[in-house]
Model the fold of this input.
Amino acid sequence: MPAILPDIPVVEAQIIEMTNAYRGRQNLGNLRANANLTKAARAYAAYLAKRGLFSHTADGREAGDRISSAGYSWCQVGENLAMHLDSRGFQSKDLAAKSVEGWINSPPHRANLVAPNMTEIGVGVARAPGKDPKFISVQLFGRPQSLTYEFQISNTTRESISYSFGGEEHEIKPRYAVTHSSCAPSEISFDSFGGGLWPKKLSMRYAARDGLLYRLEPDADGGVRVAVTPLERVR
Done:
């Protein structure tokens, strides 16, 4: 009895559909198929299948390098790989399900599936040479460079002020301004101000937004307040 061979474009489409269904169950948004990510995924799947390799760096490059070469300008990327072999072959939906289920059950791969800031996806599936049906699946995730955002923090007080953003601690000195650019949405947390052994504690948190100025100002009680205004940019 001949082996069952899947319809590869159908497998690719169903991997995207199943991925979005899983993200939906985690209350995450759908990923849009992107032509350049698809191009990169298909090219790498074909490369791995033809050469009998299975690695994220089999061609001497990282996923981001391959994605850039395919014409995708990115600020965040992720990559999942899967390989399946069965002498009986695969139905299209079955092969897609095996790939997605394997990624869901592997913590590093699942982290890519549910990365909250990814917005686009590309999938490539290729058959490896040989008697028994063997397929390589490549799944690429991307957040485009166009979604990078920029904001500024300005300190108009007479004290240094500590704050955190993107998991990092910062300090802004009096009369200074700092500009941040970031791919991933995050929170600005202002923590303390003043020098010496006993800095005053702050508890002010803001969602960082593109195109905003967060101006630290002295308030009437000797503390600090934040004025949020549009950031003036030179055109």
Notes: The helical segments are 8-25, 35-51, 63-69, 92-104, 107-113. The chain is about 25% helix and 35% strand. The chain has a mean pLDDT of 94.
